[in-house]
């Protein structure tokens, strides 16, 4: 049986007639399940930093895990959703050197990565300011560039949904680290830097943005409720971003600033936010039978 089927399917492939993706074309993008990672960029600190880390951070062992590079997660681990922690750094250098490097007496020869990347202006990607700075990509633009390159070589991938958490902590101020200020305050211009950095790397056709979802003069929520999310096959090869911070529980949620003054339905914005309606809230409230993402929390 097998010996008959194998040559038949090879013949189909040889003639280019086999459908490469066996999905129902009426399937919508929210009707699939994918596997995602949490803190997708995270690399654990080096052994030389553990003494200081364990002095300052409660439950330190829960931070001792490392993810593969983003392209390796996509290629070898079938990951299709990611979570990135963003830290504003307009001038560059705000998070350099991480206090843990200084307290651990690291030199340029012994830091786990070349810190000069932290001196460049632009949004940084890492877990905890001053204490947990290691990552597979250190700037948002570098992470996005790696994702774009992967997507350019895998153009039919299902949309990759990226959860962006805007970080606002400054836990080491008293010990000589970063203090509250830019590190804890996502003003509107800083939020718009997130949009600008995404658009500096990903062309419009590789994105799903709110303007793609809104229909006529309907609000974003009404559009989703009345017309649904796009068909899966229409949004292959694209990325969609949303802000993790929940406006109902997180005082640092960007939702108010980001949706004010004519942007109530995220007009001309790049990132989705949490919403009230279960079907509009891309983060938490997909109906259970349409659940989009299983986050692996390490
Ligand atoms: C595709 O999905 C639609 C809607 O769920 C369903 O009515 C249809 O029968 C499906 N077609 C196939 C070929 O599975
Ligand atoms: C770093 O160096 C100082 C000064 O030599 C020393 O007192 C301290 O114990 C060292 N810290 C670590 C974590 O090795
Ligand atoms: C260590 O690296 C940083 C970042 O590249 C650089 O600014 C600094 O001059 C270097 N320090 C030494 C002593 O080489
Ligand atoms: C954030 O910065 C803005 C603009 O500088 C300022 O008006 C606001 O008070 C700051 N908010 C906090 C919580 O520091
Ligand atoms: C929205 O558009 C529809 C049809 O284009 C129109 O009939 C309706 O009056 C508009 N509603 C508002 C509030 O502008
Ligand atoms: C849309 O956003 C871009 C980038 O932030 C900005 O340059 C442009 O002026 C905005 N357009 C409108 C109509 O708001």
Automatic annotation (TrEMBL):
Q: Where is the signal peptide?
A: 1-18
GO molecular function annotations of the record: phosphoric diester hydrolase activity
Report the superkingdom from the record: Eukaryota
Signal recorded as keyword = yes
Entries under Pfam families matching the protein: PI-PLC-C1
Q: Which InterPro entries match?
A: PI-PLC-C1, PLC-like_Pdiesterase_TIM-brl
Kindly state which keywords UniProt assigns to this record, in alphabetical order: Signal
Q: Which GO terms describe its biological process?
A: lipid metabolic process
**Is Signal among this UniProt entry's keywords?**
yes
Q: What's the protein called, per UniProt?
A: PLC-like phosphodiesterase
Q: Which organism is it from?
A: Didymosphaeria variabile
Q: What is the lineage of its organism?
A: Eukaryota, Fungi, Dikarya, Ascomycota, Pezizomycotina
